[in-house]
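Anyone up for a design puzzle?
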């Protein structure tokens, strides 16, 4: 059940301006897997957790030209390291 809220953020350049597009969505949090954590840590990344969101929310923001590259979750703006669609109802975002 997705009972938490996060904000997907797409930061992009349009001409000489840096613009930001945001979309607030429902999500659920789960821990980053052990193998995923160590693989990312080996190359200098530090995954915090995985957020599960609805693919329609992901496609809505991505379909406007730019994929989201940041997420605002519990007051912190974090980078999206990886997005992975597990099935037709879930996209997993590894954030850190």
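Challenge accepted. My sequence:
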């Amino acid at each position: 059940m997705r009972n938490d809220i996060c904000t997907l953020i797409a930061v992009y350049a349009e001409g000489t301006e840096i613009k930001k597009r945001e979309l607030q969505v429902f999500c659920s949090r789960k821990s980053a897997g052990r193998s995923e954590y160590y693989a990312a840590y080996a190359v200098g990344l530090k995954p915090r957790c995985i957020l599960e969101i609805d693919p329609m929310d992901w496609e809505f923001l991505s379909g406007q030209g730019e994929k989201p590259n940041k997420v605002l979750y519990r007051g912190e703006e974090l980078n999206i390291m990886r997005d992975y669609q597990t099935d037709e109802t879930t996209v997993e975002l590894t954030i850190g």
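A detail worth pointing out: DSSP finds two helices and six strands in the chain.
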